[in-house]
Structures are given as C-alpha cells and as structure tokens.
Design brief:
Its EC number is 1.-.-.-. The structure is a single chain. This protein has a domain of about 160 residues. The chain is mostly helical and about 270 residues long. It starts with a helix and ends in a 7-residue tail after the last helix.
Length: about 270
C-alpha cells in the first residue's frame, strides 16, 4: 500500500472547506473573538506540530503498521480473521483508545496542562479541531504507534482511522447548526457539534464530559455523556476559567501556556 499522505491532505482540505462553508452559512453560536486572529494562530500551531512530528518521530502510524505486518507483531497479525472484520475491529479499537487517552489527559494534572491548550480557545469552530500543544501531539503519536504494534493494526485500518479522525475532529468542532431532530438521532452513533460543544464549556463538570471524537457510544456506555450545556448553546461560555485573556491565543502564548498556568483539573 502506498503512503497515504496525499490522500490525508486532500481529505483534510476538503473537510475543512466544507465545514468552514457550513459554519458561514449556518452558524450555531455567535463568536466572541476575532476570527482571523484565532485562525492564524491555530493554523500556525498546527504547522509547528507537523514539522515537529515529521522531525522527531520518523516512524508514523502508517509506517508502524507496515513494520508490524512485516514482522508479524501484534494480536491481529497472529490470529485468523477475515481481513474486513480485522480492519473494522481495529478502527473501532483505535477510536476507543482515543476516547480513553482523552479521558486520561483530563484526569492527570500534568497531562491536563498540555491538553488545556486545546480547551483554552475562547471560541470553538473548525480550527479548534487542529489546535493541540506540540508535546501532546508527540505523546499521542507515540501512544498510537505503540498501540499499532501491540494490536497489529493493518495499514488500511490506520489510513481509514486517521482520515475519519481528522474529518470528525473538524466536523464536531464546527460552529455549525444541525436540525435538532437530526442531531438527536446522529449523536446516538457519532459525536455531533452540539454534543462536543458541551465538552468545551467553561463549566468544569461539562468540560470533563463527552470525551468521544468519532463514536459517541463510549460516552454513553461509560457514563461520561452530557446531553446539553446548562446555559444552552447560545449562552455557553467556551474555554477554561483561568485563561480568559485574548492575548493567550497568540502562538507563543499557546506553546508556553502549560508552563505558566498551574491550576489542576477539577473532577
């Protein structure tokens, strides 16, 4: 299987354009900050992450899957199942792993300081789905590579999962409106923008809920699901209580935030 970098890039650009147009045509919530200032810094952070990952971790998820297959490492390389079922199970298990990782990054104070950069965005829109601290991105990639080795995830499953993860992150962070009846049905299976917006509420109990990125069933099954923000989607305040200065949205501030704010998460 060929390197999927171009496919991922095309899917990313397509999903971003569609979600950005959707936000523009049917906004769910009035933004409070300068959009272009936020977008510029969020995308700059994404660029820094891309360079660091390419430089520091030469074995990315796709290459890890090829290595695992060549050496017959991992569970699914040592059991006999139809290939389609293996791919399906691996995509589901990787999504469960992302849910678990997300919950852990909220529960452990040191990891929360890193993940809080994502939550410190004072608005939530399609670019928030790309905004993560570089150290968190490196840790996430290392965890993903280790899991691929342990499970023996096929390369095709890795490609499907990474495309789904990128697209769903932009979809569920979108500041866009779905018909309420459709949202109600869709969130039974996948995370919708209204469902994930609760997770970005400044209210602590809401921040520590709705951890899913793609499948919503994990929150429902593991009792971390919260249906709506207490103040409603129009009035919910986005972000974290201790970081409210608009200057903290600058790239240099985003990178240094974990080392300048010491507040621990409240469970």
């Amino acid at each position: 299987m060929q390197d999927p970098s171009l496919l991922r890039l095309v899917c990313f650009i397509t999903a971003f354009i569609l979600c950005a147009l959707w936000e523009h045509r049917a906004p769910r919530k009035t933004l409070t900050q300068n959009k272009w200032f936020r977008w510029g810094n969020n995308f700059s952070l994404m660029a820094v992450n891309s360079v660091l990952l390419a430089t520091l971790i030469p074995v990315a998820a796709f290459q890890a899957a090829l290595i695992a297959e060549q050496n017959q490492w991992g569970l699914f390389n040592n059991i006999t199942l139809p290939f389609e079922i293996t791919v399906f199970l691996c995509v589901v298990l990787l999504d469960l792993a992302i849910y678990t990782q997300h919950l852990v990054f909220h529960r452990i104070p040191l990891l929360w300081k890193l993940h809080r950069v994502h939550h410190a965005d004072l608005d939530i829109d399609v670019t928030t789905g790309t905004r993560f601290h570089p150290i968190e991105m490196i840790l996430s990639m290392l965890i993903k590579v280790a899991l691929i080795f342990v499970l023996g995830v096929p390369a095709l499953a890795v490609v499907i999962f990474e495309v789904v993860l990128n697209v769903s992150a932009m979809f569920n962070h979108s500041n866009a409106r779905l018909p309420l009846w459709f949202d109600k049905q869709l969130r039974k299976v996948i995370v919708t923008p209204d469902m994930h917006r609760v997770h970005h509420s400044v209210i602590v109990k809401e921040t520590h809920s709705n951890f899913g990125f793609f499948l919503s069933v994990w929150d429902i099954w593991f009792n971390t699901y919260r249906a709506q923000p207490k103040l409603g989607h129009d009035k919910v305040s986005i972000g974290v209580p201790e970081i409210r200065d608009g200057k903290e949205q600058r790239l240099d501030k985003l990178i240094t935030q974990p080392f300048r704010y010491n507040e621990k998460p409240n469970n």
